[in-house]
Amino acid sequence: MRKTLTALLFAATLPAVALAMPDEGPRHGGMRGEPHGMMFKELDLSREQRESISKLMREQMKSQHDITQRYLDKLPEAERKAMQQELEAAKKQQHDSIRALLKPEQQKDFDALVKKMEERRAERAEFEAWKAEKEKAE
């Protein structure tokens, strides 16, 4: 249980770390936008290989998400709510810590990025709710 919560906490904080990274140019000198760019940097991969690896990694992330969700669905509602509150508190603390490291002009940009990410998340949740409702109607 503790390992699951730790993994979820870590997964929940990754977007904030990604926001703090510059958007221009390759990250870590590897494939642009790829989470393991450094690992593959020295392999001199073709475009097709990079795309295939990206696809495999996305599939793995989805699989991990599905497995985690299956176990979370088994938790009692009170524990799920407590976990969600703890994850939100940890996320806020991480955002505050990152923000404290930034210069004032960077803080404004960071705040805008966080707001934009929250808007996207809300739009996605709205879409998922609509999609689920549509599937129920069919």
From TrEMBL:
A Pfam match: LTXXQ
Subcellular location: Periplasm
Signal sequence, start to end: 1-20
UniProt entry tagged with the keyword Signal: yes
Keywords carried by this UniProt record: Periplasm, Signal
Keyword hit for Repeat: no
Family: Belongs to the CpxP/Spy family.
Name the UniProt record assigns to this protein: Spy/CpxP family protein refolding chaperone
